[in-house]
Amino acid sequence: MKNAIDADFLIFDLGNVIIDIDSKKVLQLIKQEIPTEFHGKVDSFYLTDFHKDYEVGKIDSSRFRQEIRDYFQQDWHDEKVDGFWNSLLLKIPAERLELISKLKEKFQMGILSNTNSIHIEAVNKILKSDHGLESFDPMFDWVFLSHEMGVAKPSPEIYEKMLVDLGTSGDRVIFFDDLHANIEGAKAVGIQGVHVTGPEVIFDYFKNV
C-alpha cells in the first residue's frame, strides 16, 4: 500500500469525480427554448434561491419544477423540465467503479455530494442501464447527499455531520472533489482534501495502492 495514504475513509464527490457532468449543457438547452431577452436569467439560474433550496431539501421536486417554469415564464411539462435538468449528467466510466471496488477492500468508501432527488433518480437509471446496479449502495459504505442532510458543501456543517456519522476525526478521512471551495471547506474541519482537476487525478493518486 502507498505509504502516503494514511486514512480509514475515502469520500468522493459525484460530479466530475465519479460521474462526468456538463453543467453548461442545461443552460445551452434552455437558451434554445426561450426568447433571447430571457438569456440573462439562464446565466443566473444556478444562483437562484430556489435552486439552492432544492439542493438542501427545503423544497421538493414538484415545487422545483414549478419554480423553473415560473422563472423562465414557460409552460413546460414535468418531463421536459427533468430532461433539461438531467442533461448535465453524462457517463459513469466503468474504470472508476472498478477502482472503487478495489479500494473498498482496504478502506471504508463514501459519497458526499451536493445533489437532489431528480438527479439521483437519473443517476440510478444510468447505473442500471450501463452497469447493472440499482444504486451506489452496493459499492459504497456511506452515501451523504445534501438534499437529505439539509445542508450543502462547502458549509462546515455538512462535513461535521458526516464525521459524526462516520464516528471518526477529519484526519482519518480523505475527500475528493472537483471544486476548490469544497476542498477548502473540508480542510477547515481537519479533513484531508484532494482537488480533482481532471479524470486522471484519482487514478494517479491510487496508482500504487
What's the tally of helices?
11
Global geometry: globular
Rg, Cα atoms, Å = 18 Å
- How much of the residues is beta strand, in percent? 5-15%
Q: Determine the fraction of residues in helical runs and give it as a percent range.
A: 40-55%
Low-confidence stretches: none
Tell me the strand order in the biggest sheet: 3-2-1-4-5
Notes on the protein architecture:
With 209 residues, the protein is an alpha/beta fold. It is built from eleven helices and five strands. It has helices at residues 23-31, 39-43, 49-55, 61-72, 78-86, 94-103, 117-131, 146-149, 156-166, 180-188, 201-205, and strands at residues 9-12, 108-113, 142-145, 173-177, 192-195. It has a five-stranded parallel beta sheet with strand order 3-2-1-4-5. Helix 10 (180-188) links the parallel strand 4 (173-177) and strand 5. The N and C termini lie close together (5 Å). The mean pLDDT is 96.
Question: How would you sum up this structure in a few lines?
Answer:
This protein is 46% helix and 11% strand.
Entry keywords:
46% helix; globular; alpha/beta; 11% strand
Strand and helix layout:
Blueprint: E1 9-12, H1 23-31, H2 39-43, H3 49-55, H4 61-72, H5 78-86, H6 94-103, E2 108-113, H7 117-131, E3 142-145, H8 146-149, H9 156-166, E4 173-177, H10 180-188, E5 192-195, H11 201-205
Parallel strand pairs: 1-2, 1-4, 2-3, 4-5
